[in-house]
Amino acid sequence: MINRTGEAVTLPTSNFQPPTSHGLTLIEVLVSVVILSCGAVAVMQGLARAAYAASVAEQQTAAHVFALSKMSELELAVRRQEPLKPQESGDVRVGEQTYRWEVTAKPISDDSNLQYVSLVVSWSVGLRNYAHEIVTWLPMPEKPS
Predict the structure, then answer these.
(1) 68 CB neighbour count, 10 Å cutoff
(2) How many Å is the Cα radius of gyration of the chain?
(3) Where in the sequence is the domain holding 122, given as residue range(s)?
(4) Pairwise CA distance, residues 143 & 145, whole Å
(5) Number of helical H runs and strand E runs in the chain
(6) Tens-digit pLDDT profile for residues 107-142
């Protein structure tokens, strides 16, 4: 550039440089923390549901194993020619859970030598009630002649 007197004038140079990205702004950090928090909450809810489902499955397995054991006792009583009671019930504690069992036995018909046997095992967890039922037919004890 030339001034009024005709001399060449140089403009002072500035040290201005456009900003370069060497980090994150506060808003970017906050947004990423919110996104990660939402993901962590979803993962924790999934883990809680999985733990509850595992607990219910464990209780159902215990009820099923107890029901099979009780049904085996009933079958053994029939093999020993012992008559089954029409109604029988009781409670059993497995771990920290209490299970209630109820047996119903009744002849299928007057001329049949089979009896209908139903075994229901029930339990509660909080406000929810669960039940497991096994139904079978067993021979009637032979009547002495």
Answers:
(1) 14
(2) 39
(3) 26-139
(4) 6
(5) 1, 4
(6) 998 888 899 999 999 999 889 999 999 999 999 887
